[in-house]
Amino acid sequence: MTMKIYSWEELDDALRGTLLQRPATADDAAVRAGTRSIIDEVRIDRDKALFRLTENFDKASLNELRVSETEVADAEAQLGAEELAAIDLAIANVRRFHEAQVTPDIRVETMPGVLCERLTRPIEAVGLYVPAGTAPLPSAAIMLAVPARIAGCPTRVLCTPPRPDGTADPAVLVAATRAGVSEIYKVGGAQAIAAMAYGTESVPKVHKIFGPGNAWVTCAKTLISTDTNGAAIDMPAGPSEVLVIADADASAEFVASDLLSQAEHGVDSQVVLLTTSSGLAEQVVAELDQQLADISRAQIASAALANSRIIVADDLDTALDVSNAYAPEHLILQVEDPRALLDRVNNAGSVFVGPWTPESAGDYCSGTNHVLPTYGYARAWSGLGVDQFVRQMTVQELSREGLENLGAAIVTLAGLEGLDAHAAAVKRRLGSES
Question: Among this protein's residues, is 329 annotated catalytic?
Answer without folding.
Answer: yes
